[in-house]
Amino acid sequence: MNAIVLIARREFFAYLRSPLGSAIIAACLLIDGILFYFRALTPKLLSAEVLQEFIYSASGTTMIAGLVLSMRLLAEERQTGTLVLLNTAPVKDSQIVLGKYLSALTVLAILTLLTAYMPILIFVKGSVSVGHILVGYLGLLLLGSASIAIGLFGSALARSQIVAAIIGAGILTPMVLLWAVAKAVDPPLNRYVSALALHHDNFRPFMLGRLDLGAVAYYLVVSYFFLLAATKVLEARRWR
Amino acid sequence: MIQIRDLYKYYGDRRAIGPLTADIHQGEIVGLLGLNGTGKTTTLRVLACDLLPTSGSVQVGGVDVVAEPDKVRSKIGYLPDRPPLYEDMTVREYLRFAARLRGTAQSGLDKLVDDAVEQTELGEVRGQLIGTLSHGFKQRVGIAQAIVHRPEVVVLDEPISGLDPVQIVEMRDLVRSLRGAHTVIVSSHILTEISETCDRLLVLDRGKISWAGTELELSTEFGQGLRVDITVRAPNPGGLVSMLKLIDGVQNVEPLPQSEPGAGIVTLRISATTDIRDRLCRTLVNDNVAILELVRRQELESMVLELLGGGEAGARRRSKKREAAEEAAAARKEGA
């Protein structure tokens, strides 16, 4: 079996066995449910707007869940001394990082799929396009993927999970707030700053049910960049 | 099997090891001995490809650790000073994971895991979560993960640390059982442990090998040779000392206080330049002398202390260092 799958499988079952995985899933479902009830289920909104509100609310919990899920991935291994097992096995650092990333992404995908009952509820009294739902969920997964990659990079740098979460949040928050920075910047630079924002301009197409390949590419590039950075951190530690 | 040539490892500006040159032969158990902070763990981490050297070369079975680290890693099983255990897995799950990670095929996996479980006597806890095991069992699981893929080289960093006396004896037997099938490198600062388990010693001092050889060679070099205390029942105790002095290699025979009561019972300390135990026993038996007890004296501790400057010379050096540190602290205080 490929080392990536082996590591991903071990990590995935570690999430299921520890209270962390179920706690994150339960907390996110609760928050998503509350936000859906209070923000989306209002008589003033049309069905498509309800769906947009849901995707918007879920994007916040997805980012936080991505960070929390990924903070332990390498920091905990370093803290407990188990990273040595991976480091001294004939496994590349990129395989370690990818395996960890895939395990967290799988948990996040399960969590995201479990929220599917909320958009389905819209069909009780209204109607939305299934394509809109699918594109919205693709956006959530891509946003989650980028958040996990950022968190994993933080985890590669830190020795403790708390520090990993702080580093991850320290990168993710400014990236989200770039849309606000873009407002304060003169044209044409503001367009570039806005295009780099993790949420806002890049996430809006998914909220609206529009498959924007530029936005898809953006999230994939962010994920790739931070996974590569995490790999380089692991490689550099061997030379340290 | 392992060739280390001019190996250096720096952490920033601080030299952890180097220059370090050594050869370790196939099938032998080598003890890496040294005080804390002398570079034992760093050396083992470089051997296990956990760290890369700053300069110099390390070859395991002719494969370089920098050029082809993955090839080297598949030849090595490594137990760090803190066993790398996933406490949420059962012993069996963990060993299967460790073996697969080292590239073991699915087909022979169960047999390899069963063999490792048997060799490390983990049968009774194989289905138990690692987090629920005692320290001794966890250490065994650590060794099991290091040998489960049948590596050519097994690297054990302080395998007996934190074990109780019974567990130490069991661990010693376990390490000895690896002789022949694996080349084993064991680090420890517990000298008697190294003495009991290893064929050869590498003594590390401030990142360099200050001495390499067998315990007997070390003992000879320090002029102590081999010392055995022997208790015998002899028909003619008076002529025993002069008879023993005639054995080739015997330097001195010194009577000790009688260790047990009884007619004709004598206890002697024999110093020799070489290992004379074989000849000694044969001579005594041929002369109708009953051997009641023969104990080899463990002098390793004092020899290594002398080697590492832990004796009088070392005490003088430490005292000088302390004085220098106190002077520096006083100067800083004045400056402030």
Report on the structure:
The complex is a heterodimer of chains A (240) and B (336). Chain A is 82% helix and 0% strand. With 240 residues, chain A is mainly alpha-helical. In chain A, α3 (47-71) packs parallel to α8. The model of chain A has no long low-confidence stretch (mean pLDDT 92). In chain B, α3 (91-101) packs across α4 and α4 crosses α5. The model of chain B has no long low-confidence stretch (mean pLDDT 84). In chain B, a hairpin with a 2-residue loop joins β4 and β5. Chain B has twelve helices and 14 strands. Chain B is of the alpha/beta class and 336 residues long. The longest helix of chain B is centred in the C-terminal third of the chain and has 24 residues, at 312-335. The A-B interface holds A 1, 3, 6-7, 10, 14, 17-18, 80-92, 238-240 and B 11, 48-52, 70-71, 73-74, 76, 78, 80, 82-89, 97-98, 100-103, 106, 145.
Rounded mean pLDDT of chain B is 84
Distance between the termini of chain A: 31 Å
- Just give the CATH class of the largest domain in chain B: Alpha Beta
The shape of chain B is globular
Report the sheet-strand fraction of chain B: 25-35%
Strand portion of chain A: under 5%
Low-confidence stretches of chain B: none
| Spatial separation of the terminal alpha carbons of chain B | 56 Å
Known CATH architecture of the largest domain in chain B: 3-Layer(aba) Sandwich
**Helix segment count of chain A?**
13
Please give the oligomerization state of what you see: heterodimer
Number of domains of chain A: 1
